[in-house]
Specification:
Layout lengths: L25 H7 L19 H8 L4 H12 L3 H28 L2 H6 L1 H20 L3 H31 L6 H22 L16 H30 L5 H24 L7 H4 L1 H28 L10 H16 L1 H8 L5 H23 L5 H8 L14 H10 L4 H29 L4 H10 L4 H13 L3 H14 L4 H13 L3 H14 L4 H13 L3 H14 L4 H13 L3 H16 L9 H17 L3 H18 L2 H17 L3 H18 L2 H17 L4 H16 L8 H14 L2 H7 L2 H8 L4
Helix pairs in contact: 1-7, 4-12, 4-13, 4-15, 4-18, 6-15, 7-8, 7-10, 7-15, 8-9, 8-10, 9-10, 12-16, 13-18, 14-15, 18-19, 19-20, 20-21, 21-22, 22-23, 23-24, 24-25, 25-26, 26-27, 27-28, 28-29, 28-30, 29-30, 30-31, 30-32, 31-32, 32-33, 33-34, 33-35, 33-36
Length: 768
């Protein structure tokens, strides 16, 4: 039989299970190698691997829509429940799917030697990186960013490979242009998600965003979306023309899964401005679906391999495939990949459990991505025979495979009693270990129950995240001593993590233990001397401890490290204002406002706080003879207050600006501002503010040369409001000014005192 899939027109490209090799993984191989010749066991025309329902739901991702909708609507309200559920599912899907690749690459000595560059050298490099990252935690964000960015590419590659596999099994033999269009559609869908990941600053300390400007990213995603539509339409139309749409149901289902996994979230992000959570694509429901899909196709390969081994050994039994044993190996091996490492690093070396778990997670995934792309070379004769039902000759020769590693491996999987005992013991140990790990994770998430958190701590206390939850729960229960102990253990476990340190600092500040808090910042700065946030905290604590020089030096050092530290500008401004250096203080207030203007709305101070800062800046500008700048600042405060309905602060800004306008001789402007402030006071019912503003208005009218009876009525109104307050205390300046105007008014003063309201209305109605 001629095999049309291997015409030597040109040197074939290496094709892998992932997108990275640009070849169609299982798909092209399954059809090209099949050609016209098929094994008798697969003479039927159905394209299915197992059966239609399993293949469509798991292999093609038909369950994507309901699972994604379920996770989307319930994840926010039941985050803790979902987190526990995903951690349990990882034992049966995520962990085994990594082990399936290890099993494929290492369980035969021939494969181990054939892919030695990956099974040995690359693995050694990954192990070295794993060890180094435990001692140099600055590597963790880089490793985790690579993992999170690579994951959706890996998912896309698997989807594309299975898409083409089903198309080939349906009888399609797409031309090069069609294959390129379809491949391009999968690549474009990934690139759109990539742009979403790396747009703007990162909101996750473990993810290093490229910081693509939102405007640029938006237009790039729109252009790529149009390209996706065009490429998809062209490629799918040609496939449907060749085979009809019914035969392409598996491929079309896979294509819809790719759309739901990547295009739909990006479209929602573009339309509604929602951020795409990077970690959701590696640890959530999408990862579970991908892992299940991977186990579905690799189990098929393993089953066929077991049957072929029997055939090549010229044995006549039906098959050596044992699915329960196979999946048992994957589950136990998956536990071995993820569970013991963090536990040993934590218990033996006192390393932070959470950081260690993240390191193992990222590097095991990266190793899986690399190894997976290497071992699924579909031109390989053995893979062709087992997956594609071709008649390519299989060689069982080990081809030089040997060495101590292989000998040890053969002994371990052999029938010797000692080897069998070792296997059983190791399996039981790993199962118990995995169960304990699950129990600990469950207890650690029960932050509402202090007893559960304490039981989780008893299993492993070297976990900064657990210690922080324990401290927070203890504080809520009023157990401050236990909370402090937990905070200190969290800092000791992971001194490079700012979160535990900040929690302990807040605790010490709330306890008014400023000296201890200052000592903590000094000790932390020994580890991270260029931590701008820590320098700002040291300045704040130094000021509280009566060390203004150290405070200013710390804040200035923080600005030298990071000019975007807005709080440093604010603290410096407050200190300079306190020292009477109004001009310098105003400059730092202005820098603070310019910095927060570039921040997102949710990161800015509340309107009340922002207006108060603008008013302080305006006051400093006024005291340093920067009249025009002060007027501009007061108007800014008035505008913000009016927009945010902060009526009391708007009144304050009006009165302060009116005082400046009066000094500048702009009496009409001052008159209108005073009158507007009094109207605002009346609307809020704030008698205290109204009393002060009537006093200021009366003083202005008298100084500006308006009829003295108008000024006298305003002063009387201020006195009446003041005496009605809970703690009346009429200012001496008010009493003195009243007496001075009374002398000028003579008998008219008595008439105004007896009936001030008509005169007050005249004062409020003044226009010139």
């Amino acid at each position: 039989m001629k095999d049309r899939g291997f015409k030597p027109r040109r040197k074939p490209r290496r094709m892998t299970l992932g997108l990275a090799a640009r070849g169609a993984p299982i798909s092209q191989l399954k059809t090209k190698l099949m050609g016209k010749s098929r094994l008798k066991e697969n003479t039927q025309s159905a394209p299915w691997i197992y059966n239609p329902w399993l293949d469509l739901i798991v292999g093609c991702g038909a369950w994507s829509a309901p699972l994604l909708l379920l996770s989307y609507f319930s994840l926010a309200s039941n985050a803790r429940t979902w987190s526990i559920a995903f951690y349990v599912l990882a034992l049966f899907f995520n962990y085994p799917h990594y082990m399936a690749t290890i099993y494929r690459a290492y369980h035969r000595s021939e494969d181990f030697q054939k892919y030695r560059i990956f099974t040995l050298h690359t693995t050694a490099l990954i192990v070295l990186t794993l060890l180094l990252s435990h001692f140099w935690l600055k590597l963790l964000p880089w490793i985790f960013t690579i993992y999170l960015t690579w994951s959706p590419w890996h998912y896309s590659g698997q989807n594309y490979g299975l898409f083409m596999m089903f198309a080939r099994r349906a009888g399609a033999d797409p031309e090069k242009s069609t294959r390129r269009a379809l491949y391009g559609a999968f690549v474009v869908s990934y690139l759109i998600l990539f742009l979403g990941f790396h747009t703007g600053p990162s909101t996750d300390s473990l993810f290093l965003s490229l910081g693509i400007p939102p405007a640029v990213s938006r237009w790039e995603q729109i252009i790529l979306s149009l390209a996706f539509v065009g490429l998809s339409a062209y490629g799918l139309r040609n496939l449907v023309r060749a085979t009809g749409w019914r035969k392409l149901i598996p491929s079309l289902t896979l294509f819809s899964s790719q759309f739901l996994w990547f295009m739909l979230p990006a479209a929602i992000s573009l339309i509604r401005g929602l951020e795409i959570p990077q970690s959701r694509y590696s640890s959530g429901v999408l990862a579970v679906m991908h892992a299940a899909q991977y186990l579905w196709i690799t189990s098929y390969y393993a089953r066929r391999e077991a049957g072929e081994v029997t055939f090549t050994a010229k044995r006549r039994q039906s098959s050596t495939w044992r699915p329960l044993a196979y999946f048992g190996v994957l589950i136990i091996g998956g536990i071995a990949l993820f569970v013991p490492g963090p536990w040993l690093a934590s218990r033996v070396f006192h390393h932070d459990f959470t950081s260690s778990f993240l390191i193992f997670t990222a590097l095991v995934n990266i190793h899986h991505f690399i190894l997976d792309g290497a071992i699924w070379k579909l031109r390989d004769g053995r893979i062709a025979s087992l997956l594609l039902n071709s008649r390519e000759k299989i060689s069982d020769a080990a081809a030089g495979a040997g060495g101590r590693f292989v000998v040890a491996g053969r002994w371990l999987v052999g029938s010797a009693t000692s080897a069998r005992s070792l296997r059983v013991s190791a399996a039981l140990l790993l199962l118990v270990w995995g169960t304990v790990d699950q129990a600990r994770y469950y207890l650690a998430l029960h932050s509402d129950d202090l007893g559960d958190l304490q039981r989780a701590e008893a299993m492993d206390s070297y976990d900064s995240s657990l210690q922080m939850r324990l401290a927070q729960r203890a504080m809520q229960d009023g157990q401050t001593q236990q909370a402090e102990t937990a905070w200190r253990r969290a800092v000791q476990t992971n001194p490079a993590d700012p979160a535990p340190r900040q929690g302990l600092l807040r605790f010490l500040v709330d306890q008014n233990r400023f000296d201890e808090a200052l000592n903590l910042t000094e000790a932390s700065l020994q580890l991270t001397p260029h931590d701008a946030n820590l320098l700002v905290d040291r300045g704040f604590l130094a000021q509280k401890g009566g060390h203004p020089e150290l405070a200013l030096a710390s804040w200035n050092q923080a600005l030298a490290v990071d000019s975007g530290q807005s709080l440093a500008h604010l603290y410096i401004a407050d200190e300079l204002d306190r020292e009477g250096k109004a001009a310098q203080a105003a400059a730092h207030y202005n820098s603070f406002l310019e910095t927060i203007a570039r921040q997102r709305g949710q990161d800015r101070p509340s309107p009340e706080r922002l207006i108060a800062i603008v008013l302080r800046m305006a006051d400093c500008q006024a005291r340093s003879a920067q009249t025009d700048a002060a007027v501009h600042s007061y108007r800014l405060a008035e505008k913000i207050a009016a927009q945010t309905r902060q009526t009391k602060l708007e009144s304050v800004a009006d009165v302060n600006e009116a005082g400046l306008q009066s000094k500048a001789g702009k009496l009409i402007d001052a008159l209108q501002l005073y009158q507007h402030a009094l109207q605002l006071d009346r609307s809020t019912g704030d008698d205290n503010a109204a009393a002060e503003d009537w006093f200021a208005y009366g003083h202005f009218l008298d100084d500006a040369g308006f009829p003295p009876r108008l000024a006298y009525a305003c002063l009387l109104k201020s006195e009446i409001l003041t005496r009605a307050l809970a703690n009346p205390a009429v200012p001496e300046s008010l009493v003195a000014e009243q007496k001075e105007i009374e002398k000028r008014l003579g008998a008219q003063a008595t008439r105004v005192r007896n009936n001030p309201e008509p005169v007050l209305q005249q004062a409020l109605a003044l226009r010139r």
